[in-house]
């Protein structure tokens, strides 16, 4: 639900609404560069209540993108009697694989499907390669927006699950090639998968971006969880494996290896977490080897319990060679549980042999011996555990999602839907603005600006309050300007801008919800080099606000008519190219550098006054010292506009 920022009686304020708290970003009189919100469609054929690596990847990545301020809509098959939270659209589906709980979307012309065609996505990201991924491809084509596809699953290795193996691996690989080559960019979780896709004949750009982990979540594991749940003796060591109980995971190899281990070490048990079509045959294998009392089939568990599952284990066992990434290994590492794994190229950037885990051949005796050596050498096991937890930081979801953001940004900027649109940088100077900066940034987060990402640059001018702290909390990149004064911060921010258009507002100002769209529209006219617009005052008096706003608009229009346009520091935008050619901000004009800039720009093109380019700004300067402030501005205007000299005015540094 939207919430009005202020309850004061001012009709203009109804346009300034807060975004969700998860969408907040950074600010300061310091330079913050943020790729602001874009709307992303995650089209996935695997999602809850399924439990697997793809589901975890889709969910966690979507949540991290939302924390960064983006809007993510997940489109997935509908499961009977399963309810979602906000942000998920379910499509009617039928069951096609009971043991793996796989459902296939039917694409009936239902309301949910029809509404999808109305959604204004900036980019679509397909996960999985099934019918919902195909729907994402269709929508991207219709709307002329970019589509990214993550190749989560090596389908050729899973052909035995579908139609009793009638569809051969070669056919699935060929279909993967066709789908990938219709997308704009491919994400491979590992170098192994990138090479595999290239061997299929995939020609589109492939980025290697591992699935990220929410490391904070995995730090919360509790020791003793498995032993309590399964009534395992405190003195026993736990060997753990996690995954689908299917032929491709080689769980049978691990059970046979454990048979060798348990004969030489009586105080060890094997816990198998997961479910699947081979569960019964694997239980029979364990029984036939006399391991019934030592092998625990834990089944599926709530994902929230997994940190405790990993934490309670001593060694993680892994033998699959069909993985696209092997996400369970970095998960176990994050909990300080090192892995003994069968050699596979997918692990080359995960396990550093004999530093954070052990890599060995797929040989029962060699594999078993590697595990036994670790069980005997507790000091070595402890060292591997410590390094595993440290090295897991490479898989931080914050890091991997930032890489994904960069990919999105580059694709959106190149897309036909945004080719006619200039990118915008927003500059916000801030000096001791802890009371105002958050509201300013919230107003920017509400922008109805669907065409492409934009950046916000906030410049900290030696604030002594919590301005910088608030900004860091809101995930902005902070660059300080040490030279004290508004003019230096304004110049620094505008010089740091990367957008084709540079928009400027103040930290104590809230911009209207269509502010960026209005700016964008104004610059469609090639002769326009700068724009400024309406101001509404944050005053309790409705009469004062309306009358002063009208007078200010009259002043702006008269100034423009006589060839002395007045750019308003808290509400203007310029073309970066023209700004650079004009010489930029003249730091001799300590007061009214924006006015000086407007007069110089007027010689290079049209400086427009746009009536619906609106902001709501603080009147604190006027409330504190009305007459001195009026004199300062009047004197500054005369000096800057008519005498063309820097004003001889010493202004209190409020902004």
Short description:
The chain has 23 helices and 23 strands. It has 655 residues and is α/β, with parallel strands linked by helices. Residues 1-36 have low confidence and may be disordered.
Task: Please explain how this structure is put together.
The chain contains 23 helices and 23 strands. The strands form four sheets. Strands 18-17-16-19-22-21-23-20 form an eight-stranded mixed β-sheet. The relative contact order is 0.11. It is an alpha/beta fold and 655 residues long. The model is unreliable at 1-36 (pLDDT under 50). Helices cover 37% and strands 18% of the residues. The protein is elongated, with a radius of gyration of 30 Å.
Topology of this protein?
Layout: E1 39-44, H1 53-67, E2 71-77, E3 88-91, E4 93-97, E5 102-105, H2 111-116, E6 123-127, H3 131-143, E7 147-150, H4 169-180, E8 185-188, H5 191-200, E9 206-208, H6 215-218, H7 225-230, E10 237-242, H8 251-264, E11 268-273, H9 279-288, E12 295-299, H10 306-312, E13 315-318, H11 328-334, E14 339-342, E15 357-360, H12 364-376, H13 378-391, H14 397-414, E16 424-430, H15 437-445, E17 455-460, H16 467-473, E18 479-480, H17 486-496, E19 501-504, E20 509-511, H18 515-522, E21 528-537, H19 542-561, E22 572-575, H20 576-581, H21 593-601, E23 606-617, H22 620-624, H23 626-643
Parallel strand pairs: 1-2, 1-6, 2-3, 6-7, 7-8, 8-9, 10-11, 10-13, 11-12, 13-14, 14-15, 16-17, 16-19, 17-18, 21-23
Antiparallel strand pairs: 4-5, 19-22, 20-23, 21-22
């Amino acid at each position: 639900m939207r919430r009005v920022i202020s309850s004061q009686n001012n009709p203009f304020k109804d346009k300034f609404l807060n975004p969700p708290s998860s969408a907040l970003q950074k600010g300061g009189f310091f330079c913050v560069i943020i790729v602001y919100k874009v709307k992303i469609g995650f089209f996935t054929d695997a999602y809850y209540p399924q439990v697997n690596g793809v589901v975890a990847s889709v969910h966690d990545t979507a949540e991290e993108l939302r924390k960064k301020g983006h809007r993510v809509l997940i489109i997935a098959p509908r499961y009977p009697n399963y309810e979602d939270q906000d942000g998920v659209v379910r499509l009617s589906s039928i069951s096609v694989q009971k043991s793996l709980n796989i459902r296939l979307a039917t694409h009936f012309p239902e309301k949910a499907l029809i509404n999808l065609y109305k959604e204004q996505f900036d980019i679509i990201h397909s996960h999985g390669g099934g019918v919902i991924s195909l729907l994402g491809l269709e929508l991207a084509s219709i709307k002329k927006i970019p589509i990214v596809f993550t190749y989560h699953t090596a389908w050729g290795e899973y052909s035995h699950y579908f139609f009793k193996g009638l569809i051969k691996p070669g056919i699935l690989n060929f279909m993967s090639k066709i789908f990938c080559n219709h997308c704009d960019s491919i994400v491979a979780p590992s170098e192994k998968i990138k090479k595999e896709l290239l061997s299929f004949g995939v020609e589109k750009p492939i980025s290697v971006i591992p699935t990220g982990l929410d490391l904070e979540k995995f730090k919360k594991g509790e020791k003793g969880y498995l032993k309590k749940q399964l009534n395992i003796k405190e003195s026993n060591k736990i060997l753990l494996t996690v995954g689908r109980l299917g032929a491709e995971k080689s769980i049978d190899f691990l059970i046979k290896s454990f048979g060798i281990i348990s004969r030489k070490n009586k105080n060890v048990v094997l816990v198998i977490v997961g479910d699947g079509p081979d569960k019964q045959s694997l239980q029979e294998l364990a029984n036939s080897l006399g391991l019934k009392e030592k092998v625990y089939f834990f089944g599926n568990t709530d994902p929230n319990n997994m940190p405790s599952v990993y934490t309670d284990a001593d060694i993680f066992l892994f033998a699959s060679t069909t993985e696209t990434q092997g996400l369970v290994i970095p998960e176990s590492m994050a909990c300080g549980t090192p892995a003994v794994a069968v050699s596979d190229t997918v692990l080359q950037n995960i396990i550093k042999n004999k530093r954070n885990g052990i890599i060995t051949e797929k040989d029962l005796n060699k594999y078993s011996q590697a595990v036994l050596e670790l069980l005997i050498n507790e000091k070595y096991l402890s060292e591997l555990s410590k390094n595993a937890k440290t090295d897991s930081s490479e898989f931080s979801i914050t890091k991997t999602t930032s890489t994904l953001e960069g990919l999105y940004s580059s694709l959106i900027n190149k897309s036909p839907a945004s080719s006619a649109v200039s990118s915008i940088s927003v500059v916000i100077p801030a000096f001791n603005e802890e009371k105002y900066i958050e509201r300013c940034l919230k107003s920017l987060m509400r922008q109805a600006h669907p065409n492409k990402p934009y950046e916000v640059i906030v410049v900290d001018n030696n604030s002594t309050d919590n301005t910088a702290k608030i900004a860091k909390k809101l995930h902005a990149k902070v660059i300080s300007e040490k030279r004290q004064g508004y003019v230096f911060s304004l110049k620094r921010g505008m010089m740091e801008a990367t957008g084709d258009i540079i928009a400027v507002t103040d930290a104590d100002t809230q911009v209207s919800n269509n502010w960026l769209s209005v700016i964008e529209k104004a610059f469609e006219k090639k002769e326009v080099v700068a724009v400024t617009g309406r101001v509404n005052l944050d005053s309790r008096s409705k009469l004062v606000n309306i009358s002063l706003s009208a007078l200010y608009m009259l002043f702006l229009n008269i100034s423009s008519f006589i060839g002395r346009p007045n750019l308003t520091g808290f509400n203007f935008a310029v073309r970066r190219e023209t700004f650079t050619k004009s010489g930029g901000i003249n730091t001799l004009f300590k007061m009214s550098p924006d006015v000086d800039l407007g007069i110089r720009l007027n010689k290079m093109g049209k400086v427009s006054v746009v009536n619906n380019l609106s902001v709501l700004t603080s009147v604190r300067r006027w409330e504190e010292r009305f007459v001195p402030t009026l004199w300062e501005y009047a004197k500054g205007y005369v000096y800057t506009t008519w005498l063309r000299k820097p004003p001889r005015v010493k202004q209190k540094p409020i902004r």
